[in-house]
Amino acid sequence: MWSLEELKDLKEITNHRIDYDGYEFVWMHYLNNKWSRHYVRNFSDYNKPMSWIYFNLNVWNKEYNERSNKYLKDMKRNLDIEVKITEISREANIRTKNKINEILKLKPSMSNKDIAEVLGVTIRTVERHKK
Predict the structure, then answer these.
(1) pTM confidence score
(2) In terms of domains, do 27 and 59 share one?
(3) 36/66 same-domain check
(4) pLDDT of amino acid 129
């Protein structure tokens, strides 16, 4: 699977070339600051690799856009969670234990240290209330 940075490079036509070695054609791509073979086999003419490049440019562009959109959705969701956690921490009439439980429902991966910082209590207090 390609990384997001590799997809960004692969979707650019200028990062592809077809070399002729005197006998056959070789599809090359430019990733991580070097030219490498993209396809293991050689081609008898340049039409097939050219059509594959055009096809794959669309595939890579689509996947890049999907990943970018997912990243933006996740960022928005995480920001919404952060806002809710801040609102919970500012509620004066909710007990600390309840605040900790509500925060953990929103963000189960949040560490005791981070919860303590948000609530303005010690880590030991968070640990005690989590039990």
Answers:
(1) 0.69
(2) yes
(3) yes
(4) 86
